Amino acid sequence: MTKPKLVSLEQVALEVDDVDAVLEFYGKVIDFELRGSHRDNSGVLQMAFVDMGTNSSH
Q1: Phi, psi torsion values for 31, nearest 5 degrees
Q2: What pLDDT, on the 0 to 100 scale, is given for residue 55?
């Protein structure tokens, strides 16, 4: 499958049960760079910040 070219995507929030699984899935569909993340005290990934396209700032 050829990945579609993403021009830009700005400030989208997704609420999901498993952030790690979502990052893995979308990493196969579109190219992005993980810019930051936050884990709770037990080490569970709670949020992730990614850059996609040319105008992203997080």
Answers
A1: -85, 130
A2: 55
